[in-house]
């Protein structure tokens, strides 16, 4: 643990609340005295201000009074500003919005009771989710990809023993660790061999040619424990795991603990939380989805998220049994329901080897209209902000200007590609340069704290650069994905979950076309992930946005604390008022905080926080 002196050196002395209140009162008095002057007095507000900038003195005064009263209520002393306590042990792996009991009472059935329903779980316990008793800080990357602490995830020995021969070949449960076999130790049926077989089935010599064939992004549905995704990442592909919520033995929790991109996404009654034409490949290996059920709605949604010419890879013994007569089917007139439906979707079956089948989506958008056997209508709406919408029986994306076959895409997005997304190229490239500069500042700020001040682990030497204590990063207001691009260009061994807040300009299609991981999310609700799954949270302008929506900043910070691992980092960039309020609330959550003035004449400030490792 750090000494009090070291904490003061790192984060500075916090000003007394009474002194802060006095300063605020002085500011408001000055505003009142200057009220008779022209409105140009407030023209110096920069672009970093909140989106709803007040243009009249009356509204500005009302907002100032509201902020004053809110900050006053926070500064009345320790009797009213109490530290927030810890939740009970039963919430160590708590994921909000997945309450099966409440869903059943609401009349949900046929699998929908296991789906995400935040509207039925509005209660919010103001407490901190504690780590399990045996929790340990994850190993640094890349060692943490192959070995994780068993106490960090909810996986029992019984679940491991019942997980099947494939899983036991891929992982080894030891006393306090779970070790995942390296490629060198896999002599038969290895992940590398499996990936190579997929490449050959789509006409490539090896999986090293995936990028050349236009495969940059892969959606891995039901990813197991992430070994296939880990291999794809080594090939410089972005593979995102999407799997159902599980109270224990979670695929998503284990993948994130290994430093692999993953998010909870139940594929039951709602569409996947991605826009149309998002991924180059969708992969399912024993993901336990009956694809030809519900009149093919699951396959229709896969068609929606696949880009033209993209691939659907399905590996399942059930599929092999259903396709047992596939040879005669190609010469006769009888087809299985799955094969029949893929033909309706204008998919081509490229090949079958053992239990693996690969289909390719058409590159001809007119095929859906011209096909005589096609009876699925074209969706009327365009690329909307699809946010947990019901599965729809219609075809999306055919009229989009983003309908570009994957083999025609090469290299980074050019000006034409950017304009397709409704973004001016000058704004895009200016944003990119801004985040390159910001990243250099962030890294120079955090590096001394992460590498020099980081507590020594028992039996370990002090971590030194470039061995990263940061792997899983979330940009909570990602805009164009500039921070993710800057991290990639700087060769940082991290990946970024780019979150586009609901209601903002929908830049998620642009982010996904850049080859990054991303998702839409309403920050007035909890994020679909397990506790302690991210190392660094970054948010630019999100605090002001939350305030404008009337949502609770305290609940947002508690949610950030839930998904951040112990000793993880937070970087918040916002206006002075929002940052000071967040700093006061952060003291209730026990975060160590430091406010940084950017010294550029604006009201923008940085709030750098670290979550402590507290055992209870």
From TrEMBL:
Alphabetized UniProt keyword annotations: Glycoprotein, Membrane, Methyltransferase, Signal-anchor, Transferase, Transmembrane, Transmembrane helix
A GO-annotated cellular component: endomembrane system
One GO MF term: methyltransferase activity
Protein name: Methyltransferase
Membrane association type: Single-pass membrane protein; Single-pass type II membrane protein
Enzyme Commission number(s): 2.1.1.-
Family membership: Belongs to the methyltransferase superfamily.
GO biological process, one term: methylation
Coiled coil: none
Annotated localization: Endomembrane system; Membrane
Pfam families named among the record's database cross-references: Methyltransf_29
Provenance organism: Nicotiana sylvestris
